[in-house]
Specification:
By secondary structure, the protein is α+β, with helices and mostly antiparallel strands. The protein has 2 domains: 196 residues, Jelly Rolls (Sandwich), CATH 2.60.120.10; 108 residues, Orthogonal Bundle (Arc Repressor Mutant, subunit A). The chain is 44% helix and 21% strand. The chain contains 12 helices and 11 strands. Strands 8-9-1-10-3-6-11 form a 7-stranded mixed sheet. A 4-stranded antiparallel sheet has the order 2-7-4-5, with no helix packed on it. A hairpin with a 5-residue loop joins β4 and β5. α1 runs parallel beside α6, α3 runs antiparallel to α4 and α9 packs across α11. The protein is globular, with a radius of gyration of 21 Å.
Length: 319
């Protein structure tokens, strides 16, 4: 049987994501920071180092408290705010440069709050996968997670990564910017793993991967997207009847298994068209389509451009 966690490796190979730490916020109460809607290919994130904050997603209306070690990730780039929760008028702030980071600091004299802010950038057209299959926000806690290493091993690993990022940001030694950016890329995968482990994904790939039986089908499709999978074959991997599999898969993912398979194939095709000189016919065959006309139709429906136009757009942008 396929490794049930392998879907994430395949997902990360399919979707090109880079991370960058940009700002360290060193605030004193009272303080508040507003963040506008991010760009189409951008996912903002925040890592709390010290102190507490109230996190508000302007798009979903959700609110929660962030504590040291917490990570807030916004896969849809939603407009959001962080503040100290006091309701007081924010103190003036100033921005200065320190090594590779911008330091945003306030002039208040209340309780201290410190966090790292950055963003993940998703290479197009994979941002549509992110918005289709990941939740609007993920908030993962790693504080005092060492007590629960047996029940939450992924969060414990994430805790160690956050500790290393904190040390690099505080020490700000030569090369700290490069180290922080490299750690930032690992942060994305570990945050998804920890969020899935904590059961945060009610629908989408996190819910699917966390399902004790459906995960095998997800891993299989990510591992072999070109295979002519049938519903009975996928159901068999999960030891379910076709009808039961179809019902549970739709409930967990919010989409059908064939919808997911098609999106995986089209993302793989977009990568192949961008990175190689292979003909459209060869790319169609690579992702499991024997009919080139059918491949062109599905690619155009999902990506909004024809395979040929997609290749030309990428070449033009590269030049």
């Amino acid at each position: 049987m396929q490794d049930q966690t392998d879907w994430l490796t395949r997902f990360m190979e399919l979707v090109t994501i880079t991370g960058k730490v940009e700002v360290r916020c060193a605030m004193r109460m009272p303080w508040a920071i507003e963040y506008a809607q991010a760009g189409a290919q951008e996912m903002p994130y925040h890592v709390v180092l010290t102190g507490t904050a109230v996190f508000e997603n302007r798009e979903s209306g959700s609110t929660c408290e962030l504590r040291p070690g917490d990570i807030a990730l916004l896969p849809h780039g939603s407009a959001h705010a962080l503040h100290d929760g006091s309701g007081g008028a924010p103190a003036p702030t100033r921005v200065r440069t320190s090594g590779s980071l911008l330091i945003n600091e306030s002039s208040g004299d209340g309780e201290a709050f410190d966090m790292l802010c950055g963003r993940f950038v998703v290479a197009p057209p994979h941002d549509r996968l992110i918005r289709s299959y990941l939740p609007m926000e993920l908030v993962v806690s790693t504080e005092d997670i060492g007590i629960a290493t047996q029940s939450l091993p992924q969060a414990e690993r994430l805790s160690r990564l956050v500790a290393l990022m904190r040390a690099e940001a505080m020490d700000n030694e030569v090369g700290s910017g490069a180290v922080l950016n490299a750690l930032s890329s690992a942060l994305f995968a570990l945050t998804l793993r920890a969020a899935g482990e904590a059961g945060q994904g009610r629908t989408g790939v996190l819910a699917l991967a966390a399902h004790p039986r459906l995960a095998a089908a997800a891993a299989a499709m990510f591992s072999e997207p070109a295979r002519a999978w049938t519903l009975p074959e996928l159901a068999g991997l999960c030891s379910m009847s076709s009808a039961t599999f179809k019902r549970h898969f739709q409930a967990s993912l919010g989409r059908s298994a064939m919808d997911l398979l098609t999106d995986i194939r089209m993302s793989a095709a977009a990568n192949a068209l961008r990175k190689s000189t292979s003909s459209t016919e060869a790319v169609a065959d690579l992702v499991g389509y024997q009919s080139v006309s059918a491949f062109r139709r599905v690619f155009t429906e999902r990506m909004g451009v024809t395979p040929g136009d997609w290749r030309q757009l990428h070449r033009a942008s590269a030049e």
